[in-house]
Amino acid sequence: xxxxxxxxxxxxxxxxxxxxxxxxxxxxxxxxxxxxxxxxxxxxxxxxxxxxxxxxxxxxxxxxxxxxxxxxxxxxxxxxxxxxxxxxxxxxxxxxxxxxxxxxxxxxxxxxxxxxxxxxxxxxxxxxxxxxxxxxxxxxxxxxxxxxxxxxxxxxxxxxxxxxxxxxxxxxxxxxxxxxxxxxxxxxxxxxxxxxxxxxxxxxxxxxxxxxx
Length: 213
What we know:
Blueprint: H1 3-9, H2 23-59, H3 63-71, H4 74-104, H5 108-147, H6 149-160, H7 164-212
Helix pairs in contact: 2-4, 2-5, 2-7, 4-5, 5-7
């Protein structure tokens, strides 16, 4: 139980060792907590972006990077990357805007609206990242299957042995499992980080509704 919960527990009780709090005092405490949470959402989103950019630089010059270069799909990857970065920058702007909006709000109603906007922004941000992962994986798999010489050789071998269906089935199942595992890890990360922050933010929203009653 945090400081606000302890104080609210004894709010305006006749016999209390805690100071009596007015509506404005409780509102300011909720405002401070909400502003801090949204600020951390903004910071974590930037750190996450920096992490993935760092990974992409680390992979440069590796065998994986060489395999991707061999597929000759820069005409696809570059536009997708530019669009993705543009959308991410827009999300960062929204996170920052939400933080500034909450920081300067002067009413519980406005604060509640800012909390709702922040929750929606985070939800759309997570959906976008997961959708980008799925689309990127599908595009990469498609080009790998159609431009990778090793894949062509394996397909010819499977065709000669009458195992084309089995060959494609194994490829599809393995791809789905890897993709599902990756999405699962990302969902766990988002749940542990953004989920916890949004849960606290939602608790603040409920406290504001109580103040409005």
